[in-house]
Request: fold
Amino acid sequence: MWAAYAAFVALAINPFGGLLFAIPYAQTVLHRSPWLAALVGWPLAYVQVVVVDLLFETLRRIPWWQRLVERKCTPRLERIVAAKSMFWMIVLFGAFLGPWLVMAVMRYAGVPHRRVAL
Reply:
């Protein structure tokens, strides 16, 4: 039984699919409520955000990477990310798109972690 719970944790942390696979798995294999699976899986999915944030900070120390990001970071991308409705779009679709992808885009746009963390 512990292997099934470990599989749920691995699915929730997985950057490709994540909660989209973990919640049905919990419902069908573990026979748990999808609401409970979402409640438990949400913090596990946040692990992806922490990993991307730490790796992004490490990459920023490399000069050629810093130059690449500075060239690609456009005012249009910054406006899109800074829009008031963007926060709610992230809340609604972040778990489905993959929290790691949301964090990578935000870091790419230069948005600080404290603004994206919720």
Remarks:
- Residues 86 and 92 are 10 Å apart (CA to CA).
